[in-house]
Amino acid sequence: MRCYSSARVLATLAYAANSVASIVTSRATDILQPLDIKTFHSLNRIGSPVVSPSQKLALFTTSYYDPTENKNTAYISCLDIYNGNITRLTENTLGTFVSNPLWFDEETIGFLKKGALYKQPLYGNTVPSEVFAPPIAISNVMYRASQDMLTFVASVFPNCTMDECVLVKQRNALRTDSAMVFDNLWARHWNEWMTMEKPNVFAARLDRTGSKWSVGPETNIAAMLPHTSDPLTRWSVDDYTVSPAGDNMAFVVRPPSDNMTWATNVDIYLASTKHGSRPRLLTKQMNGTASAPTFSWDGRRLAWLQMETPGYESDINRIFIYTLATRKTVAVAYDWDLSPHNLMWSRDNKSLYTVTGSKCRSLIVQIDALTGHRRELTTTGSAASIRPIDDQSLLFVHSDTDKPADIHMLNTQSQAIQQLTNTNAQTLRSVHLSKAEDFWFTGAHGDKVHGWVVRPFGFNRRTTYPLALLMHGGPQQASTQSFSHSQWNPNMYASAGFVTVVINFHGSPGYGQNFTNSVRHKWGDYPYVDLMRGVDYVTSRMRFIDKTRMVALGGSFGGYMANWINGHTDKFCALVSHDGKFSTISGYYGTDELWFPEWDLGKPWDPAGRVILEENNPERFSANFKTPTLFVQGEKDFRISSTESLGAWTMMRRRGVPARLVYFPDEDHWINRAGNSVRWHTEVLDWITKWTNTSAPYRIR
Q1: Count of alpha carbons within 13 angstroms of residue 221, beta-carbon side
Q2: Other C-beta atoms lying within 10 Å of the C-beta of residue 103
Q3: Global pTM?
């Protein structure tokens, strides 16, 4: 494909000339700027609200990155829910990081700093004091005042107290070798090799007598689970919750077995926090993934989300409710064709709140706990972190394509929403963010497919612009109209001068479970057809798009799709493949979770599975790769091994096709370090502007 022309050069010059004249202004005197890389990475990120015992106040964290000093900072503030006043409580010193805010009482807060627990009075200029400095770091701390009880998660060795674990580590440090020996699968997961240390959940009494508090001996609740023979695959706690009265705990574990890499069975156990009884398995009849347990406010019932199809990690979540007194479990809203993400009980214990994906939005839905009747409470953008205040109101975090996340209050009766924080008001006052514009078209299999467009900074209909197609991962994930701080925020590409297109192809949740399920065995078929038809649809209707200057970018499955596109079309000037699978065969053998490729495609040694894997194998079309491609890979990505990007890059360079490899030895499936994210955006935006002959509205390098 020809990706250079005098017409494009003239279009670029015209864009540069018009990008100032046509900038949208918030006021006649204010000229807005694009969202550049430095500004994007310095934005504040708000945490989930933590409601006080009186339900009048809420704690939240604000975190940010300083690109100049290369330091992350997080501090805690207190929000008065009803008058809107916000007071910063902890120090805002560059490089200081606190987390896990909690309430000890209405006048005392707690938080974690460097793995230790601190307390601080809510009022007065007082410094925090240490409550609990365990020998190993703790996380996910909860406190229940009625029991004077702390609960937390800590990673420990088999049959060890926290103190004993320190001694084990000291002995291990004296070893003369570094070998790790595995007999069962699950040698590594996400970004870590399996070790003897596993996260367990603990309970301990907190003595608040006097000014200096003390924490009693900890009890390992998970230690009472059945014995396992292989300590490398033994019990580990993924999540937990505690009843409001503090007498019961529910926790999520993956049962140890030799099939842990290809079975999706995840269980929920119920345990008493007051005596050493054996935890009770609540999901014995289920063979899918259980998640998100939550107690009703009266402590009488426990709700959770449950997948029922063994081996399928993207099965629909069903809602189950267990009554503690009768030990009976029932399903509610079983006819629902959308998959809820989390659960929270209403204060009157009559209904559940959840967030679910629906047509690119993450909406709050209220569900009657008896009848299953559902009512959507929000209609736009993306909601998260629901926290009920009383019977008619709740707090939640909300964002949209053009609005970073902030805390809002929702009246569940009138559905009126009030924004309570505006954490980036000062930074974004002079920055333009484009809104999403929806479109629908006929995709693969004759189905209606949803997408949206984000127009470029300084948009002028008389000018033509390059197109950037963003392709999400999964494939059973969905792009949402939210403000992402990751590498796939549409406004980052729009701010660089691209018409940015996002398409939720077959496999995306939020459009009914059949649409999600349809991508099985069709990785290179339905999503590819959807993406190509979607691009054709927008370019035929939006004449300001220059069809000769298009790029496509994606991560994970989106990276796989970039590789697939390279073997099947030359309509794009450049591609970006981030942690993308190049070979479905080698990708199977190198991944950590075998249930994913086995369900979606098959097993390589099975004749039928081999056929499906090869049908969807980008490497099989290597001879057709001709589009310049930027490969990005993290060494610690055990979902898509580094050899996948390295192999595709090697093939293209050996064949003389322009390609570049950006390698992060300290990153995994995502780019987690802010400094690395700055470099990621620099490399990617430089690559796509170069190959489309685009002059960005700001200097990228």
Answers
A1: 32
A2: 20
A3: 0.94
